[in-house]
Known about the structure:
About 35% of the residues lie in helices and about 20% in strands. It contains five helices and 16 strands. The protein has a seven-stranded mixed beta sheet.
Amino acid sequence: xxxxxxxxIRLIKERDPAARGTIEILLTYPxxxxxxxxxxxxxFHIHGMVTIARIISQRARSxxxxxxxxxxxxxxxxxxxxxxxxxxxxTAELGDNCLLYQGVTLGGTGKDKGKRHPTLGNNxxxxxxxxxxxPFKVGNNVKIAANAVxxxxxxxxxxxVGVPARVVKMNGKRVRSVMSEIDQVHIxxxxxxxxxxxxxxxxxxxxxxxRLKGERI
Length: 217
């Protein structure tokens, strides 16, 4: 356990420019508390002591604002930046070195039994407020933009944005117009782009109607 905590502290220092020292991280970072509590709760869960596991996870939720079901499967190096409002469902699976921002939900889409939450590969980044809903796979090295809603599988090495989320970059090549690597701010919204295109067409139609009316006069 101490080796895992030491690794998690090192990763926080690498990923968060606001992290100033080990003591500060130990005492003030909810991600560290939530993940540590999850590891303990998960041990009880897989050994059949599910009530104890849920009590531990709910206490951690009250302390940190991060809800991780003890049945989830989480790899090494998970960092939840800020973390308030993050929810990770019972059958969710996360690979190594994933990064989640505040408000992220890894959830299901109904009351189905069995696998109902997403599986994230290694090195996946999920931006603030994004929702990943359903029992599908998000590949390795995927980046999901802030407030995206992911409802289908995403291949490896992709960037996805929008509601519902669409792949805009794959293997370093643009699938659709995208400004740059994901930074949660400077990313075009496909829905907004489509609305702008439709508005331009409506303006053109209005001008054409006005021209035709003028000819009749």
